[in-house]
Amino acid sequence: MAHSSGPSILSKISDAFRKQFQPGFSLEGQIITGRTAVDMPEIPLAPLQKSVLACSTGPGAGLTFVSRDSDQDDCIDRGAVKAGVIDWCRPHIRADGISVTLYERKNQSAEHYGDPIADAYAVVARPNSCILALADGVNWGQRPKLAARAAVLGSIEHLHSKLFQCLTAPKTTQDIFHHILLSFDVAQKEIIAHEGTTTTLTVAIVCEILPHPRVSSRWALCVVSVGDSPCFLYKPNLEKVYEVTAAAHMGKGRDPRDAGGCLGANCGDNPDLSNLVCCFLPVSENDMILITSDGVSDNFDLVSLRKAVPESHHMSSNPSSLPTVTPEVRQMSMVEGIGNLLTRRSHYLNRMLSVQDVLDTLISYCVDATDEKRRFLEHVWRETSDPSLSPRTRREKERTLSQKSKTLPGKLDHTTAAGFQVGELRAVPGIVELSRSTTTGVSNYSISSPSRMRWSSQHPSSLRRVASVNDTNIYKSRT
User: Fold this and answer.
1) Distance of CA 469 to the CA centre of its chain
2) Taking the model in full, what pTM does it have?
3) Segment holding 275, helix H or strand E
4) Rounded to whole angstroms, how far apart are CA atoms 237 and 244?
5) Which pLDDT value is given to residue 22?
6) Do 123 and 130 contact (CB within 8 A), yes or no?
7) Do the beta carbons of residue 440 and residue 426 sit within 8 Å?
8) Which helix (H) or strand (E) holds 165?
9) Is the peptide bond before 116 cis (omega within 30 degrees of 0)?
10) pLDDT exceeds 90 at position 75
11) Phi, psi dihedrals of residue 368, rounded to the nearest 5°
C-alpha cells in the first residue's frame, strides 16, 4: 500500500470498490468495502486447519462468563469449553488481547468510575487462520458489559461451528463474509437473550488463500464492523498503519460521542446497522491485524488531546485559539500517530515488535495520555467529599472543577485492543504462558521476556509501569 490514511486512502477505498469487478484489476494494496458478502471478492481458500494453537479473552473471564453475577468474573475456568475452545487462557506472542480501564478511582477505594469494564475481546488462532472479535458496550454498567460479552460469545460460537465443524467447509472469501454476517445475527440474539443493552462489534478473520491471478498474497483479511471499534493494519516493514474500517465513518468523520451503529436493543429489540461495513484486504506475512475500542483510537485524536478543535466548532470567540481540523485531517493524524508511536518503540528496542509489544505500547500510551486528567479528577473527588462542605458549596466546587477537567488532554474510557501477526502459526512452548488480572484496571504480567511490560499491582490511580528494560520517555513523545 503506497499511501497513508486520510483523504487519499478514503478515495482509494471507494475507487477500489468500483473497480474490483473489472477484468484484470489487481486486489493487492486495495481495501474493498461493501455491506454484503456478494460485494466482496471471491477468492478461493486453502483448507482451514482446525487445531487451536492460541487463544485469549477478556477482561476477566471474557466470553467464558456472560452473566450479571460478578463473583466469578475474575478468572477463566481453564477446564471449561466455550465456543468450541477449551482453556481460553493460552495467549501467544503473535496472538493476544488486553483490556483496562482508564477511569479515575473512587475516593481511594478499589473501585473506579465506569466499573465494570464494558468491553470484551476474543482471539482464536489456528495454524492458517485467526478470528479476532472485539465489542465495546455503549455507556456504563452491567448491561452494556453483558451486551459486549454476549456479542463476542455469539459471533465466536457461530464461526467455530460453521467454519470448523460443518461438513461443508467454506470455499471462498465470500463464504467467510457470509458466515461473519450471520454471526452478527447470532450475536444480536445473544444480547437480547441475556438482556444486554447495546454494543459495537468488529470481527476480523485472517485466512490462507489459494493462488489467484488478482492476488499475489498468500493471506487475506476479512472484516465486518458495526459501531466505532476500528480495525487497523500495521505493516512493520513499511513502518505504516492503515485503518481498514475507515469506510464506516467516511464523509462524516468519527464522533467520540456517537458510535454510529450498534447491536442490541437500540430501537426495541432491533440493532442500528447504519454504519455496518464489510472490508476485504490481501495481507502479507508479518503484517499485524489490530482491533481496538475507541478508548485507544480516540486518545490519538487531535481534538481529544486538546491540540485542535473540530472545524464546525471553530468560532472567533474560541478562547483557546487552537487550530481547526477537518474529519479527514483528524483521521490522518490519528493513524499516523499510532504508526509513529510503534515505529519509535521498534527503534528503541532495535527489533520488530511482536503483537504483545504492540498491545502493551498502545495501552501504555493511553495511560500516559490520560494521566493528568485522571489525577485531577481523583483530586476533585477528594476535595468535594469533605463532609464539612455544605451541599451548595459542594455543587459549585464540583461544577467549577468539572469544567476545568474538560480542558485537560485525553479521553478516559475502557480501553481494549486485540491483535494477530499474519503467517502460519506454530506452538512455541515455554514463552507464551502468562497470568493477567484486568478487573481492577491494570494488568499483572508474569512473562519473562525482557521486552514485555509488567503493570504494577498498585491501585490504578497512578497506573505506573514497571518496565523490565530501562525506561525512557518513549511513550511521552506524542505526535
Assistant:
1) 26
2) 0.85
3) none
4) 18
5) 57
6) yes
7) no
8) none
9) yes
10) no
11) -65, -40
**465-475: pLDDT as tens digits:** 322 222 333 32
Q: Which three cell numbers stand for residue 321?
A: 485559539
Cα–Cα distance measured from residue 176 to residue 223, given in angstroms and rounded to the nearest whole number: 9
pLDDT of residue 431: 40
What's the pLDDT score for residue 461?
A: 31
The order of strands in the sheet holding 270-272 is 198-199, 262-267, 270-272
Who's near 225: CB < 8 A, 6+ residues apart?
Answer: 200, 201, 202, 203, 231, 245, 248, 276, 277, 279
Cis? peptide before 211, omega within 30° of 0: no
Which string of DSSP letters, residue by residue, matches 334-363?
Answer: HHHHHHHHHHHHHHHHTSPPPHHHHHHHHH
Q: What is the distance between the alpha carbons of residues 292 and 279, in angstroms, rounded to a whole number?
A: 16
Spatial distance between the Cα atoms of 413 and 390, rounded to a whole number of angstroms = 31
Task: Kindly state the average pLDDT of the residues 189-198.
Answer: 95
Question: Beta strand pairing status for 85-86 and 262-267?
Answer: unpaired
**H-helix or E-strand spanning residue 372:** helix 371-384
- Check whether 1 has a pLDDT greater than 60: no
What is the structure's pLDDT at 311? 80
Kindly report, residue by residue over 182-192, the tens digit of the pLDDT.
999 999 999 99
| Grid cell in block for residue 358 | 504492540
Contact 243, 33 (CB under 8 A): no
Rounded to the nearest 10 degrees, the angle between the axes of helix 355-369 and helix 327-349 is: 120
pLDDT of 115-152, one tens digit each? 999 999 999 999 999 999 999 999 999 999 999 999 99
8 A C-beta contact, residue 182 and residue 196? no
Q: Which among 383, 386, 427, 422 has a CA at the least distance from the CA of 401? A: 383
Residue located via cell numbers 478508548: 295
Cα 357 to Cα 220, 364, 376: the distances in Å are 23, 10, 29
String of b and e for 325-360 (b: at least 16 CB within 10 Å)? bebbbbbbbbbbbbbbbbbbbbeebeeebbbbbbbb
HSE toward the beta carbon, residue 22, CA cutoff 13 A: 8
What is the total residue count of the chain? 479
Written as nine digits, the cell of 231 is: 480495525
Q: What percent of the chain has pLDDT over 90?
A: 62
Q: Which ranges of 246-317 would DSSP assign to H, the alpha helix? A: 294-297
Query: What value does the mean pLDDT take over residues 6-30?
Result: 58
- Euclidean distance between CA atoms 321 and 8, whole angstroms: 28
Residues whose CB is less than 8 angstroms from the CB of residue 351 and which lie 6 or more positions away in sequence, other chains included: 451
Query: 298-314 burial string, b = 16+ CB within 10 Å, else e?
Result: bbbbbbbbebbbeeeeb
Are residues 84 and 63 in contact, defined by beta-carbon separation less than 8 angstroms? no
Identify the H or E element spanning 8: helix 7-19
Per-residue confidence band for 26, with pLDDT thresholds at 50, 70 and 90 = confident
